[in-house]
Each structure stands twice: as C-alpha cells, then as structure tokens.
Design a protein that fits this description.
The protein has about 450 residues and is α/β, with parallel strands linked by helices. The protein contains eleven helices and twelve strands.
Length: about 450
Amino acid sequence: MARFQYTILSRAVPGREEEFVAWYRERHLADVCRMPGVVSGRLFRMDFQRVYELDEAPQWTLMTIYELEGEDPASIIDSIRAASGSDAMPANDALTKAGMIQAAGHLIASEEGLGGQNGVADATLRLPAREIPAPSFLSDHARAYLKPQRAAAPYPALGDADGWRAYVAARDEAVLPMLQGISTQVQAKVEERDANGARIFDIIPPMVSPGSRGIVLDIHGGALILCGGELCRIMGTNSAMRLQRRVWSVDYRMPPDHPYPAALDDCMAAYRTLLRERAPEEIIVSGGSAGGNLAAALMLRARDEGLPLPAGLILGTPEIDLTESGDSFNTNDGIDPGLRRLMPVNLLYANGHNLADPYLSPLFGDFTKGFPPTILTTGTRDLYLSNTVRMHRALRAADIPATLHVTEAGPHTGFPGGPEGAEIDREIRNFIQTVLREG
C-alpha cells in the first residue's frame, strides 16, 4: 500500500470560477476515488493563481492536489489520465478547452514507509468518502445553517490590490441585504463617534436603563477584510440587542489599503477613549471570528502598554491562530458549511509580519502576565473549534478564569435566531452580569 499526491493544473472559463471549484470539490474527487486501485482519497490542497493571456483577458489557473492511497500509484495515475473526459470521469464545461494542462504524481510513502520512521507509527488518519447528516435532534432553524453553501469566489493574487478591493466589495454587497432586513426590526439609538481617530458606533438598545454603566466594546468579524461601514453598524446593533447592553462597535480599518497593524491600532484607540468614560471594571470587550483575533490581541497589547484590563472578554469562535495549525483545520475542512481556510487573507492582513506573532495570532501569547476572565464559544463543526479549545486550555494553564461552551453540530456561524443560539446568548449575558458584579 502506498500513499501519494496527485496534482492537477487546470484553467476555468472566465466568469465560471465558482462552478469550476465546486466541480473539483464535489464531483471530480469522487470520480478519482472510484478509479481501480484507489483505497481512499482526500482533497489535500486547492490554490488559485491569477494569470493573463496576451489579450489581457483574466483567467485563473487552479492547482488541485489530491492525497490518494492505493496499491500501485503508477497504474492509478495512468487510469485517471485515461479516464479523464470519459463517461467514468466526465469533464465539466467550466474548464477551458485546454482543460487539464498538467498532471503529476508524487509518492509520499510506500507500504514500508507507512509504518513511520524510527519505529514511530504514522498518526495520519485516512478515511473514505462518506456522507455526514445533520443530527435529527437539532431545531429546523439550526439544520438550515448546516446546508452546504456555494463555493466562495477565488481569492485574488496577494499583490492585486484592485482585485482585493473588488472581492471585498462583492462579498459585502452580498451580505448587506440580509443584514439590512434584520436591522429594520431593531429599534436602537445609534450615534457615530470619533474615538481618537477611530470610528465607532455608540449603540444603546431600548432595554438598557439610562443609569446602566456596563458597556461592551464590540469588534466585528469578517475575515479581517469584510463588514466595515454600514455592516459594522448593523452587526454592532445586533450584538447590542443580543447582549442587552450598550455597545461601542469599532469600525476598524482593513486591507488591502490598511493592513496590520491598522485594525489593532484602531481598537487600541477606541479602548483608550472608552477608558476615559468608563472604569475598566465597567467594560466588557467582545469579538467574534476575526473580531475575536483583534479582541484577544487588544488585551495583550493593552496589557503590554500598561493599560488596565476590562472586567471580561467574550471570544466567539475566534480566529486567533493565523498560522492555521489546529486539528480542526483538517477535520472540519468542508464540514463547516460557511467557512474555509483563510491563509491568503491572513497573509494579506499580516503584510509581511510573522503570522505567529502574538499580536497577529494571540493564541501564542503569554497569558501569565495578565488577561481578563474569558468566555469562549464554538461548535463541533466549527473550522475554528481547535482555535477556541486551544485558547481555553492556554488560559486555564495560566490560571486565567475561562469558560468554554461548545454547541453540538454548531458551525462557525453558530445558530443565531434558533433555540441553540439563544442558549449561548443566555450564557454570555450571565457571564457579563457576573464579571460586572451586578447582583
């Protein structure tokens, strides 16, 4: 038995890139795994590179790498090549006429090598393709969140600033109508303010009494590049309603025009401004996904710069490891319906800085020097499950009060609006009340 990689380079018909990627993920790999001699297979890597023909018409070259296992790699590769385009492995018309322009195999390990080196067993688990149903006990609302979604648009090349601006604009435009529909049902007082150069939305929901001193500094998600401006206002308003608290929502600057450390600088400016209006024990800092990255990094930097820390921290499925080293980046890749690996975005955001720097990947910070009590939330299908679990363990190892809540079958989005999401919201509100010492 041998394990080997099979690499394919191919081009998409311009304008049909999403269909092209979906075909590789959902159909072509399954066809490859049905080839004679293939015991198991998985998608190892998929990367886009933007290229241009002489007429300047943009096209995308996709590098797809499958990791396969079988008795005879050479014969398997020959079978795949021979079957390509046949009834056994039909091509997709989203491919250009050039189709698959190169294919090659690379041996990872032979039958002897699969036992590992120096007597140490290989811990890699190889699974055949299988179907994963949604648990029957979930609410209908939650089950809807687990439905497979269309493949996301490919990322631009790292140095293509115009391409990234277009990508961000298209993604924000797609999300805005849905969030606007939600926000029309919300009655909250919203004021735009300047916080020492950073823009924030000061949001007071109707259930907050005028004398309430507790406040949440909320840092929105969006892969560190999305959901600014109006989307930030809407998301901040939704957070205020869910948490039933006054919120300052930070509309931080983002790539491609404002890479690291601009976003963290804005969060620091907002926190410094808030400290002039509130005592630290009256402040909660909150962040979800990319906002969780910035919220945790804010705590490390505020501490390092001598600022007092807030009463508590909320981390919702935080993107706190930009190196993407956790187990769930493999186990939940393709299981989480709404999130994929973000390495090209991480590199864009980092702007040449080391991804393992604690201000970029707070998971690797030193928490023994001080960190606020923290509540962390995730789900068993969350791509960031490992991020959240590892952060919880790191905090507890430093004796920081930290509570972890894991939702069964929960994806990265969680189940907002459903009973499962309501349970998590209640836990977060209880946490806020406890750390603010309200009754």
